[in-house]
Amino acid sequence: MQLHTIKRNSSHKKAKYIGRGGKRGKTSGKGHKGQSARAGRKMRPEWRDLIKKLPKRRGYGKNRFVPLVIKPEVVNLSAIEDTFMSGDIVTPTTLVAKKLIKPKQAVKILGSGSLTKKLAVSGCTLSATARKAILAAGGSVR
């Protein structure tokens, strides 16, 4: 009898790991101890607290994305001076046609720049300086 010919009586078995939940063994993929290893653990997601701190939106219906105050589209007198001819009528529709503004409900004309042409303005809100400049050039405001 030699050492390399000796056979054991029982087969060499590795100890079977315990742990419930499939093929993970021992801790079943839950790590060691702590809150996350316990049964019935319910950890609150981190982003939930961030969401809870945000203020609630006002209303949740069909007008959800409509702002409370619609700001008017702004046009300066210098832009009107460049695009309109003398004697033209300036309205929101003509401003859209000349591509000075996007189609929107309200338009406000501001007084930056100078005006030398006689223009008729209607359907637009005006700043005080714009009104003075239009009237001084011989135009009219309706």
Describe the model.
The protein has 142 residues and is α/β, with parallel strands linked by helices. 21% of the residues lie in helices and 11% in strands. The chain contains 4 helices and 6 strands, in the order H-E-H-E-H-E-E-E-H-E. It has helices at 46-53, 77-83, 92-97, 128-136; strands spanning 73-76, 89-90, 107-110, 120-121, 125-126, 140-141. A 3-stranded parallel beta sheet has the order 1-3-5. The radius of gyration is 39 Å and the shape is rod-shaped. It starts with 45 loop residues before the first helix and ends with a strand. The model has no long low-confidence stretch (mean pLDDT 86).
* Beginning-to-end CA distance, first to last residue: 121 Å
What is the CATH architecture descriptor of one domain? Ribosomal Protein L15, Chain: K, domain 2
Number of helices: 4
* Gross geometry: rod-shaped
**Which radius of gyration do the C-alpha atoms yield?**
39 Å
Give the CATH topology of one domain.
Answer: Ribosomal Protein L15, Chain: K, domain 2
SSE order, as H and E? Answer: HEHEHEEEHE
Mean pLDDT: 86
Number of strands: 6
Residues in β-strands, percent: 5-15%
Secondary-structure-derived class: alpha/beta
Strand order of the largest sheet: 1-3-5
How does the major sheet shape up?
3 strands, parallel
- Poorly predicted runs are none
CATH class categorisation of one domain? Alpha Beta
The share of residues in helices is 10-25%
